[in-house]
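Table S2 (continued). Query chain:
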Amino acid sequence: MTTRPGATLPADRATVRLSIIVPVLDEAEGIAATLDALAAPRAAGHEVIVVDGGRGDGTLALSHGRADAAIIGPRGRARQMNAGAKHARGEVLLFLHADTRLPRFGVERIASVVSQGAAWGRFDVRIEGRSPMLAVVAALMNARSRLTGIATGDQAMFVRRDLFERVGGFPDQPLMEDIELSRRLRACAPPACLRERVATSGRRWESRGVWRTIVLMWRLRWRYWRGGAADDLARAYR
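Corresponding output:
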């Protein structure tokens, strides 16, 4: 399912409650801004859950008062997101990286497409940074995702809680957990590919070198599609 942006949202969107799960590790510098941007969804009745990997850099303390729950989870993004899902009370789970911002009316768009029958989905992405190549990276990510039905964590994946539980949540692996979850979800239902764009930080690409990161990620994905072990790929990534 591919949907187009629109200013008019159905009245029944308020009946769908979201739990926004934010896995964090050493995000003290930016977590306040991330959570402050979610104040409006919280005021509308959605919940925000921060799951800290537990290094104690102050991220958790800064989250208190800005989130409905701020908890320590087992280290590892997949494990943290699963821990947040167990704590959540919403009908729909939205997994949001700490350096990613939703578009305007992003929560309402999710509630709208879920009300219309979507079981899971993701947004298009815009990568912020200095390099003009980041726009190309984002365009390729969006096109590949729409073509394959595979989403990445940078695209703010969302899923109905019952379907998430049915497929067993995120797999317990250190890398490619978003791709593996997409595979499982795609076998049950097609994704809603929302054309509104989340904004995510390009720090990962720029810190390693944009071209170097592009090549590395394509190599790792190719190895994963060929059956490579996620643990081995995580070591190569690091």
